[in-house]
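Predict the 3D structure for this chain.
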Amino acid sequence: MNIGYSVMVREYKDLKNKVLDHYVFITKDNDIGVIVGNAHTEFFYIGYIKYVMTDRKTIWCNNFFCYERVIRVYEPNIVHKYTYWRIYIPYYGSEVPIIPLNIIKHIYEPQKRALEILSRCEDNLERIAASFIEKLYETGVTQGIGITGSLLPGIHNPRHSDLDFVIYGTRESIKIIEFIEENPSTFRSFSENRLKEWVKVNAKMNKIPLEAVGRLYRRWRRGVYSGKEYSIIYNNAIFSNILNKPSWVTLGKIKIKAEIEPSISGLNYPSIAKIYKWHHINGIIPKGDISNIISFEALYIPLFFEGGKARVEGLLQYSKVLDEYRILIGVKEYLGKVIPL
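Done. Predicted structure below.
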């Protein structure tokens, strides 16, 4: 349990002044939310409210309050509905939910929480989480492993809650993906019935065929460990200021057939797919080449990371600064879709 502990502490100290993807915050009104991506500002974070405080007993409680989960399905319109602060971000060419810094009471850091659980477990879910982290130590990764989800702010229910992890760092992410792929008896796939349920939910939410969703399932993203479902999100741990990034203007809707190049940028969130060949089907016709797809829908991460052919529908955007075109997926203005072929 102590392997690499001091290394992890140093890594946590290096990141403590940076807010990264899947950090969790609590507001002054005691609502709990999630920070999205690594690019923010000194005035606000991009993020959304996920749990709101309630007077009734629920399965999400700590020693002081109980919470109602208002975001059960990650559809853009639902996320926007429960987060009252929104702003147009030129880099995304889209209106996104934000959290002003002055309403935040506390920020929960995934790596720090992982260290806490490794040193002391309060219940069975925390014990399984600690075992999961220790298992990942066999990769040689002793830093960059974080806990998110309801376990992070400590409102989890040992009987009902799942395990949610975030891996910070490109090298760390690749090692852990390979390790999970090599150990199917430890990190198990969903059962046939559970996989069908997961496929059905995602197909309905993203408006794509069932078989297309099935091709996007990976154990390194979701599976079962010691009888508990887990999810893992990956992150390069590079903080940036969103206002320093180039602006993009939406030109209209487009549909193309694309060949996606394998790329580590596909693991991040929002994820980016590198396009090396494409064929226009309908919609706006760009005056130049389309370089990439940027998506706020995490379902497509395996395709963007591993590469492959797909039919893509989204918003065509142009950056005058970069003189490039791209396609935006998964925003309030237009959901779009990516169907692996």
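Residues 1-16 have pLDDT under 50 and may be disordered.
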